[in-house]
């Protein structure tokens, strides 16, 4: 069941860098990856070297692949503490949060479009399904929480469509816990590419795929447009989050 809102207009303060945008990570746009091709594969392999995300507005963020491969960091304890029932970790990567949720006693399932991510999550002893979040998933409408960490609000390049999809996944009293940008930059939508450099200097780039960023202010508009409301925004360490309620 797909609820993509591809033609959605950007809101006030948005920077819309859609199909006609130029500059940034080049013109090779992999539309098959727009909704979740395995574009993070090189970073998930955690090969030695550097991994980063190039955005089409020129921003470049290092990808914290060692964090993804390690145990859940302290900031995630605040996220786990908010969970009081079955939780779906969307874009779970190697599954450190899925595992932390299970260890906290919750039924937790990771979802990832990358076969490698699913294998790594299962190897840790957590449960994961190899699916695109926009395709049918187990227990739709019955999850107590859906989690979007580590920039995963960018998945699909349209936060309203992604949050609306998450709204479908939770039950009427469920929540969506989402990691956000600190207040200021608003909503940005455009393209991104995963870049990797091996220790011997070889540079690799994924195809370009749709991506987005959302801050703690713009989340109010995006949540409202997707049938959710912001229950609370909170910071943990230097990271920012919001809990969005369905009811
Ligand atoms: C920025 S990384 C986040 C890593 C992760 N949260 C972790 O703890 O390792 C984005 C993750 O989302 C996955 N992903 C991207 N598009 C997806 C989609 N449409 N459905 C499900 N997972 C997706 C990627 O394969 C990748 O593992």
TrEMBL record:
Superkingdom of source: Bacteria
Keyword Transferase applies: yes
GO molecular function: methyltransferase activity
Region feature (Disordered): 1-33
Gene3D superfamilies assigned: Vaccinia Virus protein VP39
Ranges where the Methyltransferase domain occurs: 88-172
Name of one Pfam family that matches: Methyltransf_25
Record-annotated membrane-spanning stretches: none
Keywords, ordered alphabetically: Methyltransferase, Transferase
Name listed for the protein in its UniProt record: Class I SAM-dependent methyltransferase
């Amino acid at each position: 069941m797909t609820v993509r809102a591809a033609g959605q207009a950007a809101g006030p303060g948005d920077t819309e860098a859609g199909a006609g945008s130029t500059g940034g990570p080049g013109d090779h746009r992999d539309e098959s990856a727009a909704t979740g091709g395995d574009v993070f594969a090189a970073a998930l392999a955690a090969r030695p070297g550097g991994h980063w995300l190039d955005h089409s507005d020129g921003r470049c963020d290092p990808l914290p692949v060692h964090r993804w491969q390690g145990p859940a960091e302290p900031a995630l304890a605040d996220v786990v503490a908010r969970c009081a029932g079955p939780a779906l970790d969307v874009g779970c990567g190697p599954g450190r949060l899925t595992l932390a949720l299970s260890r906290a006693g919750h039924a937790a399932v990771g979802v990832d479009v990358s076969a490698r991510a699913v294998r790594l999550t299962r190897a840790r002893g957590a449960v994961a399904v190899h699916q695109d979040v926009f395709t049918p998933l187990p227990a739709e409408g019955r999850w107590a929480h859906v989690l979007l960490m580590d920039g995963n609000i960018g998945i699909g390049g349209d936060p309203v469509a992604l949050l609306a999809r998450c709204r479908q996944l939770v039950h009427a009293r469920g929540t969506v816990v989402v990691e956000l940008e600190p207040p200021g930059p608003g909503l940005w939508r455009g393209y991104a590419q995963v870049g990797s450099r091996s220790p011997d200097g070889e540079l690799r780039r994924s195809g370009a795929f749709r991506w987005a960023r959302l801050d703690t202010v713009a989340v109010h508009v995006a949540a409202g447009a997707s049938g959710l409301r912001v229950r609370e925004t909170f910071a943990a360490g230097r990271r920012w989050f919001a809990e969005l309620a369905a009811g």
